[in-house]
Design brief:
mainly beta; 12 strands; elongated; OB fold (Dihydrolipoamide Acetyltransferase, E2P); twelve-stranded mixed sheet; 12% helix
Length: 208
Amino acid sequence: MSVQRATFTRPLIAVAMVAASTLYAYAQRAPVPTRVRGTIESVNGDTMQVKSRSGEDVKLRIAPDVNVSGITKISLADIKVGSFVGATTVPGPDGGQNAVEVHVFPESMRGTGEGSRPYDLKPNSSMTNATVSESVVGNDGHTLLVKYKDGEKKVFVADNTPVVTFVPGDKSDLKAGAKVIAFMKQLPDGSFETNRVSVGRDGLTPPM
């Protein structure tokens, strides 16, 4: 290699190494969470402080158009054939799917997030939003056959599984002590904003 070519090549190698290290650092960066589950500690204007279930303090800007929904407890018997539900499940010992919680969507929310996907509530959990096509009552719960556009799943719901539904809410529900799930995004300045919050009613901790 000539001296001139070596002189020209070295800067290119250095640039490539810097670019590679930058990409590696970016790949190693922890993903930004999409939701925080916890308890509101304070609300000051458009800022909400939440203590997450795992103990972190999370500061959230409340978006001007924030959508607030209440979550209230219902019974397993309220899940009917034709209900559009969301079920958080984990694999059962028999290869089936056991519900960790089930939330029944009001008719106005039918079709929300239809399908089945990995979920972050528990290890190996998944979230399935689908229509109940069959419900079989057993000695210790219900077995639901739920169908969505790409498939179907059998879900066992034990008698003690939390079952909830959504009710209308507003910004006044965001107050200290409320148990919430706040959906969040990171803003360009590194802060976090929420434009959708689910609030447990009557001290309820949203189970999803």
